[in-house]
Amino acid sequence: MKAILCTEFGGPELLKYTETTEPIVGEKEVIIQVAACAVNFPDVLIIQNKYQFKPELPFSPGGEVSGIITDMGPGVKHLQIGQRVLALCGWGGFAEKVKVAADRVFPIPPFLDDITAASTLYTFGTAYHALKDRAQIKEGETLLVLGASGGVGLAAVELGRVLGAKVIAAASTQEKLNICQQKGADMLINYEEEDLKEKVKELTSGKGVDVVLDVVGDKYAEPALRSMAWKGRYLVVGFAAGEIPKLPFNLALLKGCSVMGVFWGRFSSEEPKQNQQNIMELLGMIHSGKIKQHIYKTYTLEEAPQALKDLMDRKVVGKAVVEVKERLETRDERLEGNKNQEARIKNQESGILEGEGRKAEGGSGKVVFRSVGDLKAYEGKSLGASSWTMVSQEVIQKFAETTEDFQWIHVDTEKAKVLIPGGKNLAHGYLTLSLAPKLLYEILPIEGAQMALNYGVDKVRFPSPVFSGDQVRLNANISKLEESPDGSIKLFIHVEMESNNSPKPVCVAEMISMVRF
What we know:
This is Zinc-binding dehydrogenase. Pfam families: ADH_N, ADH_zinc_N, MaoC_dehydratas. It comes from Shivajiella indica. The protein is of the alpha/beta class. It is built from 17 helices and 23 strands. Strands 3, 4, 5, 6, 7, 14 and 15 form a seven-stranded mixed beta sheet that branches. The longest helix has 20 residues. The protein is globular.
């Protein structure tokens, strides 16, 4: 396969476009045929051996890719060959194929093209984590973005606007500032021609800024810190201008402000649940048109060193992307037409009534939810009960094999006959819980949604066991709804599962789902 290889540390001019061996998949890894790979500042550092991660020579730079899975290890269960994905590989992306740990690979929604998919997580992920999780920026606060025309900076300008902040974009040329203004910046500072501290003072009527997002460091950091308002938050994201600043921290004392590090890569590993929530919200904003990646230029694989050079020379506004392959048709897309046709035929046969809003299926009385209003109308109301389903010993055995939890009370039928009252094996509590989504779909049918995701479960308990051969069914009601900034809603659904052999519920939980129409 073709790849850009770093065989010695140094500048982009030392990189080589050459033939190299294809990667070999490991137990919990996937091989991705790369469609596109974003160009990020860590790529510039890693080829100079200045990054915190230091791969052995030779290696290919490029840490953020989109493409199609061509192979995967036996330990990978949540992905499939032929699936279109984006991945955070760290390095290796400037190549026709890359090997990535499966937990760093994410399915691409149908509405996201390869270029956008490969250029979103690093920049928007970092900026959103910085503003939402670290600064906890509030509507009406003032945000100063240093290096506002770069990938993370421009993402922060857009997200600041979406989150209701007044955004001051600071960059080095008028051309760059014009892009920032198009993305929603309220005020502009050319910090190559204007005094940063004095200009901030003028723009804020002497109050200062509530949040600084700094991706450049160097000589711009101290005047920005001096421009903080009382109890401001200074977000340290990177040092694109070169030097790591040595700040007089008596300023933090005098202003009562916080200086916060922003390391999105570690955050995504340390707090995967919160990171996943952020990603879902960002995808919602992209789909609704609230944010959009600004692509400076696309390069061929052979031109990847030039892309890195343009980034180093601060020519790139927004994101540069290396397009490795034209988009390939995935297996899902090949089948999509057939699936859509089958769904239409099924709907016609089942007599689902067409039209806006919540409708009952012909003759059955079942409610179908087609809008946020439909769901709100059922807040606090019962969704009814599902049909009964049997928990057989075969199901219990398969669950044990999948989870590798082989407690004898679940799988040893001979011992159960002797030691368990009634002589039957017990279903694992988590097996009982895992049946809830299947049964919930039956009583909460949602149509026309752009996204419907079982997000999690809260406050679960198992008042009574389920025995092999028992029948169970689900009763549920929508306890509350919460609307998110991306236009999605979070459903909190109280569920109780009953068994035909127990006077008590066998599972009581609050399920959480995310839906966007």
